[in-house]
Amino acid sequence: MKVVELMNKNVVTCHPSEKLNIILNKLELFKIAGMPVVDKGRLVGIISQSDILKGVKNGTIDDLTVADVMTVNVVTVPPTESVIVVAKLMVENHINRIPIVDNDKVVGIVTRGDIIKAVAECG
Hints:
Blueprint (H helix, E strand, L loop, with lengths): L19 H11 L3 E6 L2 E7 H7 L10 H4 L13 H11 L3 E6 L2 E7 H11 L1
Antiparallel strand pairs: 1-2, 3-4
């Protein structure tokens, strides 16, 4: 199975300059735990709840921006990648979500939950 078959195409993203209190509202509103960070249409990072928790050790939620806490070395895959490869990347890199990128644009995202759901539906 290719990742394009199970990726979420309606990707919630944020900008590096957004304040963390806004990001917390987005996470709650969309019921997600992280999102890609995009600047001028290009992926520049990823932010998760754990990034935010680590960040507030060094500042307040009202003062910090996404750029202050985001992960910049993002693991990505193309839409044609195998779901097995994506699952292995998640385990090896201790991550819960991988942006799907095509021609430098975020076209989807896959989470561990998406993979578990796909496995459950197969069996």
